[in-house]
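Review session, final week

We close the course with one last complete record, chosen because it touches almost every idea we covered. It is DUF3021 family protein, a protein from Guptibacillus hwajinpoensis with 137 residues. Go through it on your own first, then we will talk.
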Amino acid sequence: MKTFLFRSMVGLFFGGFLAVLLTYGIIFIGDQETLDSNLFVTNSLGSIFCGWLFTVTPLYFEIHSLKLSQQTALHFFTVMVVYFILAYGIGWIQPDLVNILLFIAIALVVYSIMWTAFYLYFKHESKKLNDDLQQIK
């Protein structure tokens, strides 16, 4: 529970930080002098919720009673379903079939790349730790 609360706080603050950075980018790079307050609140709350979602859902990988395939499936479906509902509801994904299919394709590719990168990283770290333990013996 302590880890969940800590990650929740980190995610909320990180999401808020990203919302502010994106807003600055829109103002300075997009040459936008004024902002629609409703749009700002909606998008910033969406960003804050995404920050929370993406920092809390990796806790699935700390449930050691589940196999890696189960952890990955739970994480993938939780993130994709919740993010899709949020993004579609806010308007980040336009409501037509092409955009929805494009979202699914991009999400699958990005998730696969990131999962593979983390898997290889932790496999490498595990090998280094095992080698270090062999040196101690």
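Two points worth writing down before the exam:
The helical segments are 2-28, 37-56, 68-90, 97-136.
The longest helix spans residues 97-136.
Good luck, everyone.
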